[in-house]
Amino acid sequence: MIKRQVYFREEEFELLQTAAQRSGRSVAGLVREAVRRVWLRPMSEGPVALWDGPTAHNAMEHDTIYDRVE
To answer: Which pTM does this prediction carry?
Structure first.
């Protein structure tokens, strides 16, 4: 691991400390996780890569949201 120095505004650091205490983790651990999630995740591919979560339906079921259950 390489040690680096990061500057935060005082109020940001206080909020990070509070979040770290609440989660039982270190501030450094929260910062490393945030960097991995936001900046180091694989780039999405394709012409419209807006969603990276699980899909609720596939293309064949696209109209099922209009089905009524009575």
So the answer is: 0.57
